[in-house]
Amino acid sequence: MNEQTVDILIVGGGLAGSLLAWQCIQQGKKIHLIFDPKIPSASKVAAGIINPVTGQRLVLQNNANTLLNTCKSCYQSLEERFNTTFYFEKPMRRYLRHHKEESAWKKRQNDPNYTDYLEPTGNPKIILQHHTAYLDTQALLNCLHHEFKHQSMLEHATVQFDDIDIHASHIRWRHITAQRIIFCEGWRGQNNPWFRYLPFQPAKGEILDLKTSSISPEHIINCGRWLLATDDGRLRLGATYHVQQPLDELISPQAKDTLLTDLKDMPISLEDIEVVQQQAGIRPTTLDKQPFLGFHPKHHALGIFNGFGSKGSMLIPYYTQVFIEHVEQQKALPKSVDIQRFTCA
Ligand SMILES: Cc1cc2nc3c(=O)[nH]c(=O)nc-3n(C[C@H](O)[C@H](O)[C@H](O)COP(=O)(O)OP(=O)(O)OC[C@H]3O[C@@H](n4cnc5c(N)ncnc54)[C@H](O)[C@@H]3O)c2cc1C
Fold it and tell me: Among 14, 53, 70, 228, which is most exposed with the fewest C-beta within 10 angstroms?
């Protein structure tokens, strides 16, 4: 391999590492992206649903408007660049399942912050949600990786931590010298020797792709579980959520049963259901449900861009901008995502 000097070495080719790499290139930075395609990536499994109002209490994401505008313009500019559609707007029909959700909805109906997002349907147990969408994450990553490869910026390798030499102003990994290394390893960040002091709380999830002879729903259906008919003809059902350790990335008959049982309770009747694919992955969730952004308190050339949990497709475009402004213009990171909120032992 040729000796190379770059501005930023990025570890991880999921949505976080790949979008960060792309935005750095747009800023004129020289980058090198490394990931091991044999190491599973949550981004390959994700349904890519973008939903700013979540949970039983129907909580609106902080800063939702900015996040949504940023992700929409990011994905649309990538669509123009690659002449492919990745971002699909799709309203959601949310079915309230119990008293807690119904009383949350009663409160939200009188809250002007929610008017734009939640619309009554005439049925007190059904809400129509706006500003929801899904990202075809896999198609986007294929295009980005192809482009990085074309520009000789992509290398498939497993990064072993012992291979990284840390200096005050740069790092060295094998044939690469970089001013900074940014780790975007998804949930495996919890094993990174420099960042394992951060409270990760990875959550396994499983998802099914179905076939049916019935007409698929035009909205995203949400009744705790969700059902999403994609524009390329898939009908996706998900997702389970488990934080109990030990976690693995294997599909399980239990998750399949759970999802299919819950499908029967959904207010939609589908004939001749067949499971065509089952996938499992681990979300890079964190204990305080906020991302991890920043640089190691002692080794300033080591950075982390991780912890996007269940919301990578909505959060990552905005936080790539925030992170790059921090690196380039020394703008302070928002306290809620800055890793300085934790003490490094
Ligand atoms: C079942 C399921 C459903 C989901 N649904 C949604 C959804 O609908 N909407 C949504 O927004 N999010 C969803 N998510 C969450 C979403 O997947 C994540 O938020 C996002 O993909 C995280 O991206 P990431 O790049 O941080 O991590 P990952 O995609 O896991 O990427 C990590 C990368 O690091 C690489 N790597 C790790 N260690 C090394 C190493 N030592 N050397 C080299 N490479 C390494 C891996 O190969 C991979 O490329 C879902 C997740 C799951 C599991």
Answer: 70
Half-sphere exposure of 328 (CA within 13 A, CB side): 15
Please give the mean pLDDT across all residues of the chain: 96
Any ligand 1 atom below 6 A from CB of 184:
yes
Q: How do beta strands 220-223 and 225-229 pair?
A: antiparallel
Amino acid type, 133 = A
Cβ atoms of 20 and 321 closer than 8 Å: no
| 295 pocket-lining for ligand 1 (C-beta < 6 Å) | no
CA nearest ligand 1 atom 27, residue: 186
What does the pLDDT look like over 263-284, one tens digit per residue? 998 988 899 999 999 999 999 9
Q: Is the CB of 255 under 6 A from ligand 1?
A: no
Q: Which atom of ligand 1 is nearest to the CA of 41?
A: 30
* Closest residue CA from atom 35 of ligand 1: 12
Gap from CA of 186 to ligand 1 centroid (Å): 5
pLDDT tens, position by position, 82-102:
999 999 999 999 999 888 999
Q: Domains in the chain, start-ordered, CATH in brackets? A: 4-45+137-199+288-341 (3.50.50.60), 49-135 (no CATH), 203-283 (3.30.9.10)
Burial 43-68 (b: 16+ CB within 10 A, else e): bebbbbbbbbbeeeebebbeebeebb
| pTM of structure | 0.97
| Atom number, ligand 1, closest to the C-alpha of residue 13 | 49
pLDDT tens per residue, range 105-120: 999 999 999 999 999 9
Q: Is the CB of 35 under 6 A from ligand 1?
A: yes
Q: Is 180 exposed, middle or buried (0-12, 13-18, 19+ CB in 10 A)?
A: buried
